[in-house]
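Figure 6 in text form: structure in, sequence out.
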């Protein structure tokens, strides 16, 4: 079931409430605008009326890192197919187009499962100054609402499909679809520099530094 809202503080908060009330696996909250969109590590998600903002109730109980990567793969497949672009995934949850962030995924535990929040920038020509240099948007010239509706249904369908994959399948596919998994010169939160060296068995990023292999549990990964 898709619950449609014009404006909300956060679709993740709405979906979490639905999950606590017994919502089914695959129930979705979608809003035209969020006034308090949520990103990882307490960051906000710029959510004007142009983008696609949704949250999905998932009743799987797998690990959050693996589920986050699975949803990243799902959104990548949906965006690439519907918009005809070729995106990259920056570990663990950023969809990248032309070296800028176009979409983000955040997964949080919820009542007997999880809630996945997904934001995709669509037809946004202006961004706040603090993200202007690192964010971009899909640009759809005609049929915007029809295209957004197609993208919505594709994102939901792919999310449910990828969320059901095994851990091994997610790790394998993520390594195939992300240039950030291996051989990328990166910096993590301004404190770790090195070359990415794959994923461990739990889906955490490995970075080879001058001091040895660092296991990245969380943090902002950026190319250098």
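Output sequence:
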């Amino acid at each position: 079931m898709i619950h449609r809202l014009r404006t909300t503080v956060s679709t993740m908060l709405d979906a979490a409430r639905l999950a606590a009330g017994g919502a089914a696996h695959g129930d979705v909250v979608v809003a035209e605008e969020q006034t308090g969109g949520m990103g990882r590590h307490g960051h906000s998600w710029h959510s004007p009326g142009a983008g696609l903002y949704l949250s999905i109730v998932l009743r799987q109980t797998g690990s959050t890192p693996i589920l986050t990567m699975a949803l990243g793969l799902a959104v990548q497949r949906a965006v690439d197919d519907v918009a005809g672009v070729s995106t990259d995934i920056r570990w663990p949850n950023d969809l990248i187009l032309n070296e800028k962030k176009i979409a983000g995924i955040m997964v949080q535990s919820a009542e007997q499962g999880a809630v996945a929040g997904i934001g995709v920038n669509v037809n946004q020509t202006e961004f706040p100054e603090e993200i202007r240099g690192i964010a971009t948007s899909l640009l759809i010239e005609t049929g915007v609402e029809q295209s957004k509706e197609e993208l919505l249904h594709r994102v939901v369908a792919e999310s449910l499909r990828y969320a059901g994959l095994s851990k091994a399948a997610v790790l394998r596919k993520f390594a195939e679809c992300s240039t950030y998994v291996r051989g990328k010169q990166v910096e993590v939160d301004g404190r770790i520099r090195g070359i990415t060296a794959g994923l461990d068995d739990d889906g955490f990023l490995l970075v080879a530094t001058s001091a040895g292999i660092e296991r990245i549990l969380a943090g902002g990964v950026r190319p250098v």
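Caption detail: The first helix runs from residue 11 to 20.
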